[in-house]
Amino acid sequence: MDLASYLLKPVQRMGKYALLLQQMMKACPETLLNSSERSIQEIEDLKLAEEMVKFQLRHGNDLLAMDSIRECDVNLKEQGRLLRQNEFLVWEGKSGKRSLRQVFLFEELILFSKARRFPDRKNLDLYIYKNSIKMTDIGLTAKIGESPTKFEIWFRKRKPNDTFTLQSMTEDVKKIWTEELSQLLWKQAIKNRAVRMAEMSSMGIGNKPCLDIRPSDNQISDRSISFAQLSRTVPRFRNSIVGPVTEACRNVKRPHSVISMSSVSSSSTSSGGSAGTPTGQGGSIGHGSYESTCDSPKPYHKSATLNSQCSVVQLRLVLLKDCQNLPAPVLPR
């Protein structure tokens, strides 16, 4: 016997371990499953041991098969772990010829090979490399027509000749492969998204892939401030002009007011009306003064233009004095 035959002995022994555990599971009576917690725990340990032996046996066979790949121009050590390897019927393209291929599933690659059998040397088959596809370039169609054993792998460019239809020997193999491929594609999508977000952040774009145009209370939809909004935000003091008094003052016509209507509308503090002082108050601004009240039938005297250095504080004082002497508004019943 040569060295390769001796190396197969441990792998074959793992298969015997799996058969032994299966026989032990069958030998356990069904009444033992509901007897005690200790017995249930022992049964669970046997199941875990059987699963571990099956995994090691399959993984050992996969590694031996990977070492048997020939004429491969891809560095398989850089493609991640070998997850699966099974035999499939493969159609390349929509009208391609059917061929028998040994397909290897790595974390980063799917590899197609052709098996070369040696009748005189059992379990020492060679696999001739045919082609391969990177996981970053493919998509998956888990169901093809009514066949329970077919699925499709295609390039994302979606050309007719860039599709591979695979048909497994059993439904279980097809189910396992489609689940493994789906998980790998999801992981690849999450990884690509993280890389893309990191690139956008490094360019100063931010961590959001698109603009957020949803309505929000913080966005500025209108820069103007209405009188109702001003009355809610300004605190009410004892001599405050905000409220009904200000509304009444605003309705009083002052044709000879010093403050024009444009200046009234542009200032939030002067929205209650125009400026002026009643008779007897002695209020003068600049070179002119007022000599009538809000209720006086006498015409107002036209005052001189305000001096350019008149402060805003003086204007507010005039407004406050003028509005305090107005009659109380009559509320509607």
From TrEMBL:
Ranges where the DH domain occurs: 1-63
CDD domains: PH_puratrophin-1
Annotated Low complexity bias: 260-272
Superkingdom in the source lineage: Eukaryota
Disordered: region residues: 259-298
One Pfam family it belongs to: SOS1_NGEF_PH
UniProt organism field: Acanthoscelides obtectus
Protein name: Uncharacterized protein
GO molecular function, one term: guanyl-nucleotide exchange factor activity
Compositionally biased tracts (Gly residues): 273-286
Domain called PH: residue spans: 75-186
Entries under InterPro entries matching the protein: DBL_dom_sf (IPR035899), DH_dom (IPR000219), PH-like_dom_sf (IPR011993), PH_domain (IPR001849), Rho_GEF_signaling-related (IPR052231), SOS1_NGEF_PH (IPR055251)
Keywords on record: Guanine-nucleotide releasing factor, Phosphoprotein
